[in-house]
Design brief:
With 107 residues, the chain is α+β, with helices and mostly antiparallel strands. The chain has one domain. Helix content is 21%, strand content 24%. The chain contains three helices and five strands. A hairpin with a 5-residue loop joins strand 4 and strand 5. The two termini are 21 Å apart.
């Protein structure tokens, strides 16, 4: 959340009891799931997606449900630390399809 705020996004953080139902309703599959789910201008942003990739999504407006960074890869926003490795940002649709939207190398 700090990463998004620092990038100029307004963040309305909410702790919810049943995050899995929100993920499911938003079209996030178990394979794409992470620790955070955000709704941004009609898209779902799942996990530690870099702010520049969210800006790209909002500028390009592709026909996808959203973006995900599955798991919590070291080096992703909020997960900085030694041992950072490249990771993928996945674009996904509500039918279960997905594709690599970006590869991020935080090193």
């Amino acid at each position: 959340m700090d990463h998004l705020r620092e990038a100029g996004f307004t963040v309305d953080a909410r702790n919810v009891v049943d995050l899995m139902s929100i993920k499911r309703d938003a079209g996030v599959s178990a394979a794409q799931a992470s620790c955070h789910t955000a709704l941004v201008d009609g898209y779902v942003v799942e996990g530690h997606v870099p702010a520049d990739q969210i800006r790209r999504l909002l500028a390009e407006r592709p026909q996808v449900a959203g973006l995900a960074v599955p798991g919590m890869p070291v080096g992703s926003p909020g997960m900085e630390g030694p041992g950072a490795e490249p990771y993928e940002v996945i674009a996904f649709d509500r039918q279960g399809g997905s594709t690599v939207y970006a590869t991020v190398d935080p090193r």
